[in-house]
């Protein structure tokens, strides 16, 4: 018996059985689209959650997905446009599909349209806003530096006049109720839109309608400028436990606001950026990058690592005599380099976490450096003792000459290396922060490369003193 279109469903459980059933469903709907039976395909998915429709589109061939999007009702299309991964929009970039997306964009309010466009590949987003009623404003927002507060603020926020009343604010809220998702405070401005303060939601409930706004408003204690870096915005909000921040221009005029949702987005972006930097990948990289973009975003970091490896090799080469006299030393180079890298990354990661939590240079810096140094020293003693004892007990049985010298070299070198790597890893993120650079750059390639060079240099210096 043939399954009817309306009985088709999508199983989001993630099980193997669900994957098999979903592939069958995708093939059936794809066949409907190719055979020109679009209405039947739409009937099959019209009651599906938007997330399931998006999953279906990603399972279809690009051509079939484009056709299905083109015939979708606007309400369903808006949901899909908002939920589908922005980088996939470019994969659906035939003119008919873009025309559909342009139509849907006109139905979104300006703030929602900007948030959606900002996640898309820039050339594709700029193409979509052609002919839009607010094309100039959207283009200006898209050309804003993504790391600035102005790139994350909501523009159409509710404001109150300084000479107004509580009743006027309430009336404005009622008139714009369809546009307001969540309201915690209303910013107060003068006739020139200079920020004067804010009124909390609770004040709108507690005070009479004829109460002057100026009587209940709070002064603007926390706000940021449009040019404030998003990392500083997040640090300010975290330090003072703020859920809403006003954004002003250089003359104090209100431009917009950053609410809890935007703060979460900034936090997510910062975490993603730090993760990529720590892995030696450009923050602009994406899993949808093509070969050329992959090379452009990763090759510079690989070349930097190559330079570091070259420095390490030159250090090793400078101790050619020591290697000739005691070739066994070469076997322990990976041990020293690996230990230095691990200790450095651990220390730098904790420093980056401290910076992200709002720790200032003059506050916890010196105690933190002292703790890292002491902890590294203890770890160095333990690791050095373990390696030294292994060399003493196992070395003679496998023909290692002068095992005592090798054991002492490893123990002393590992102690010094862990202390240097721990101090360096803890210190560098704070220095980069002072230099207005991203502390996450300290980890990954830079910390590992520096510690490799220092580790090898220390190891062979100690070996030269003990062996020769």
TrEMBL record:
Sequence intervals crossing the membrane: 299-319, 326-345, 373-394, 406-432, 444-467
All copies of domain CBS, residue ranges: 153-216, 217-273
Pfam families named among the record's database cross-references: CBS, MgtE, MgtE_N
Source superkingdom: Bacteria
Membrane-protein topology: Multi-pass membrane protein
Coiled coil: none
Main location: membrane
Function: Acts as a magnesium transporter.
Entry protein name: Magnesium transporter MgtE
Source organism of the structure: Tropicimonas isoalkanivorans
């Amino acid at each position: 018996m043939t399954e009817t279109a309306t009985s088709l469903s999508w199983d989001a459980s993630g099980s193997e059985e669900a994957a098999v059933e979903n592939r069958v469903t995708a093939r059936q709907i794809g066949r409907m689209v190719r055979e020109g039976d679009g209405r039947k395909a739409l009937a099959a998915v019209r009651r599906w959650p938007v997330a399931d429709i998006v999953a279906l589109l990603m399972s279809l061939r690009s051509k079939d997905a484009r056709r299905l999007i083109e015939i979708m009702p606007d309400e369903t299309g808006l949901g899909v446009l908002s939920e589908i991964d922005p980088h996939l929009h470019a994969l659906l970039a035939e003119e008919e599909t873009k025309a559909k997306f342009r139509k849907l964009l006109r139905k979104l309010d300006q703030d929602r349209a900007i948030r959606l466009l900002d996640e898309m590949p820039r050339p594709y987003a700029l193409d979509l806003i052609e002919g839009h009623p607010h094309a100039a404003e959207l283009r200006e927002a898209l050309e804003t530096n993504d790391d600035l507060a102005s790139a994350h603020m909501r523009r159409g926020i509710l404001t109150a006049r300084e000479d107004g009343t509580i009743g006027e604010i309430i009336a404005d809220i009622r008139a714009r109720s369809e546009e307001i998702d969540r309201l915690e405070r209303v910013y107060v401005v003068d006739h020139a839109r200079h920020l004067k303060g804010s009124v909390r939601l609770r004040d709108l409930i507690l005070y009479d309608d004829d109460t002057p706004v100026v009587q209940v408003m709070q002064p603007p204690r926390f706000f940021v400028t449009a040019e404030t870096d998003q990392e500083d915005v997040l640090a300010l909000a975290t330090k003072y436990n703020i859920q809403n921040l006003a954004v002003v221009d250089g003359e104090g005029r209100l431009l917009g606001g950053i609410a809890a949702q935007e703060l979460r987005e900034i936090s997510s972006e910062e975490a993603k950026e730090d993760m990529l930097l720590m892995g030696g990948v450009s923050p602009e990289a994406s899993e949808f990058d093509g070969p050329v973009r992959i090379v452009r975003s990763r090759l510079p970091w690989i070349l930097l690592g190559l330079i570091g490896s070259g420095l390490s090799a030159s250090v090793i080469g400078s101790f050619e005599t020591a290697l000739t006299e005691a070739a066994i030393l070469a076997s322990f180079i990976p041990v020293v380099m690996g230990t230095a890298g691990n200790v450095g990354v651990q220390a730098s990661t904790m420093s980056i976490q401290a910076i992200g939590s709002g720790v200032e240079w003059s506050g916890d810096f010196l105690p933190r450096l002292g703790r890292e140094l002491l902890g590294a020293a203890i770890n160095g003693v333990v690791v050095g003792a373990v390696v030294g004892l292994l060399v003493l007990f196992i070395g003679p049985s496998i023909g290692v000459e002068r095992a005592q010298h090798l054991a002492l070299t490893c123990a002393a070198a590992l102690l010094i290396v862990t202390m240097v790597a721990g101090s360096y890893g803890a210190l560098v993120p704070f220095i980069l922060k002072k230099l207005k650079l991203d502390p996450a750059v300290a980890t990954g390639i830079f910390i590992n490369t520096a510690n490799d060079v220092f580790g090898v240099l220390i190891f062979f210096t100690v070996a030269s003193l003990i062996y020769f």
